[in-house]
Amino acid sequence: MAALDHIRVLDLTRVLAGPWCAQTLADFGADVIKIERPGAGDDTRHWGPPYFRTPDGTATREAAYYLAANRNKRSVTVDIGTPEGQRIVSELAAECDVVIENYKVGQLKKYGLDYASLKAIRPDIIYCSITGFGQDGPYAARAGYDFIVQGLGGFMSITGEADGGLGGGPQKAGVAIADLMTGMYATTAVLTALAHRERTGEGQYIDMALLDVQVAMLANVGANFLASGEVPRRWGNAHANIVPYQSFEASDGWIIVAVGNDGQFRKFVQIGEREELAEDERFATNPARVRHRDTLVPILADMVRTRTRHQWIALLEDAGVPCGPINDLAEVFDNEQVVARGMRVEIDHSLGGAVSLVRNPIRMSATPPEARLAPPLLGEHTEHVLKNLLGYDDSALERLRAAAVI
């Protein structure tokens, strides 16, 4: 029995933040019905290459970006711009516990699919809206994009190489972290609302904003600023308060060395055959190393270049000095720990063969998440859902198809 197999979710989202939330709920057993535009679907279906390939090597129209956020769902195509489409989605909402949407503020009201309209149909509905800037405030009407939010929310001001250095300047993250973390916060909010409803019978409205989440994600850095009033600077892969605690280039690639105390520093330079550095008063203690980092780090960089990544990691791990490689994704999915934890999963796809996806990372003893269904083809479940959930017959479906409603 899956933890959420009694919950049905109507997914009116696209791209990443909303689909990520809905996929997480689906991983735990929720029946997620994804509503998509007939003939087009979620924007990310077309964000390729790469695309899923069948066993004979044929590229499909299923982009890897779309596959990443839509497993375990059922796809139903409905044109909500038509009155009949709006009626269908309203009928589906009446059969669902949760609605998740990421339309612009107020856009769904004109379709009768806003919270107030659906609450009138199902009073205990849980309705989660995801936008760039929230339902109120001076930016509410703006479209929200992860990249813009990373900049606006301060993340890029603390990410990237230091000003004045090689490649210095603000840098976004390599993945859409504001989208992904908003999806995760939204999941928490939905689960909390479900727990509240189980105790009280009361549904509720959830207002999630990418900018709010990005500001919250500043965590200790944000708290440091609020406590001190000092605007933090970028340190790249270095640490503001610990030296050496950064990346170094070995003879064949990059490694991370995270020296946490003076004893570990001594071991590090002994392995590098530069024992005298631990005796130098400029480098003997961490406060001294922080003050003289501009002198010390180039010396250490030259030292690290004398060995390979594998040699350094083996020697440092044996000595108890925290370290690790900077892997590319081929190395990540070949890593013995990643393999042992089963982070790559294969799911049979309706087009043939299996699609490779990343496993939900949550481990639970009684109700673990499960990758049951491959991301659906566009409209793959339209007929089944409308027949079995809403009672539509073949003639009704044919009429709706002819009118391009589904």
UniProtKB/TrEMBL annotation:
Coiled coil: none
Pfam families: CoA_transf_3 (PF02515)
Keywords on record: Transferase
Record-listed E.C. numbers: 2.8.3.22
Cited SUPFAM superfamilies: CoA-transferase family III (CaiB/BaiF) (SSF89796)
GO MF term list: CoA-transferase activity
Keyword Transferase among UniProt keywords: yes
Full protein name: Succinyl-CoA--L-malate CoA-transferase beta subunit
Species name: Cupriavidus yeoncheonensis
